[in-house]
Amino acid sequence: MPEYLYSDDSIVVVNKPSGLLSVPGRGEDKQDCLWRRVQQRFPTARIVHRLDQATSGLLILALDAEAHRNLSIQFQQRVPTKRYQAIIAGIPERYSGRVELPLRCDWDNRPRQMVDPVDGKPATTDWECVQSYDDRCRVLLHPITGRSHQLRVHMQALGHPIIGDRFYASEPYITASDRLLLHAEQLGLKHPVSGEWMAFEAPCPF
Hints:
The protein is mostly beta strands. Helices cover about 15% and strands about 35% of the residues.
C-alpha cells in the first residue's frame, strides 16, 4: 500500500512503492494502481502527475477539480521542484553535470523512449554524484522537464544506466538489484488553494 504523508481538503501526498502502477494500464492484470488504492481512502482523488511503475517515491493527488486544475498548470509551467536519488552503473568522470537530449517514444519497442535530435521533445536533467562505490555511484537527479523515462534514458545516454533498469541497462546491472534503484525523494510546490510553498520528502529506501 502507498504511505500517506500529508492530506487536507484539497490534496493528498503519498509515497508510491516500486512495482505499483500510477494509473491503470491495458488489460485486467493492470488495473491495480496507486490512484485506485488512494481512492479507497479518498474517493475524489485525481492523478496530477505520474511515476514509472518501477520508480518509488512522492506523488501528489488532487481532491477536487479546482485543485487538479491548479496543480496541473503548475506542472505544465514547471513550478514544482523535484529531486530523485538513484544508483548508477560505473563512476562518471565528473561529479556533476547537465544532460540536454531530446526524447521521443521508441514506437517499435514501447514503452521504451529514445534520444532523437530531430523529432524528440526537449528534455533536461541536472545530476550530481554524492557517493561512489566499487563499480557504481549514488547520484541526485533534478529533472528540469518531465518526459517519460527521462532520467532513465539520460543516465543510459551518459553511459551510466540506473541499476536494476530492465529497459535501459545491460547485464550484470539489470539483475544487480531486484528493483529499479530510482526514487523520487523530494517534491516542492505551491498549495493549490493558499499558494503557500510546501515541501515534502520521502527518504530513499536503498
